[in-house]
Amino acid sequence: MSRNLSPDEFRQLSPPGLDADGQATQTVSKGAGRWLALIALSVAQLMDMLDNTIMNIALPSAQRDLGFSIDNRQWIVTGYALAFGGLLLLGGRLADLFGRKRMFLIGVGGFVVASAIGGAANGFMMLLLARVTQGVFAALLAPAALSLVAVIFADNAQDRARAFGVFGAVSGLGGALGLLLGGVLTQTVSWRWCLYVNLIFGVVALIGALAFVPGDDRSHQTRLDLPGCITATLGLVGIVFGLGNAASNGWSDVWTLVPVIAGMVSMIVFVLIQLKVAHPLLPLHVVLDRVRGAAYLTLWICGIGMFAVFLLLTYYLQEVLKFSPVMTGVAFLPMIGAVVISSIIFGAALFPRVGPRPLVPVGCLLAAIGMTMFTGISATSSYAAHVLPALLVTGLGFGMIFSTVQNAATSGIQAHDAGVASAMVNTVQQIGGAIGTAVFNSLAVTAAATYLKNHAASASQPTTIINATVAGDQFVFWAAGGVFLVGGFLAAILFRSGPIPVPTNAGHFSS
Question: Which candidate, 144, 148, 151, places its Cα nearest to that of 106?
Answer without folding.
Answer: 144
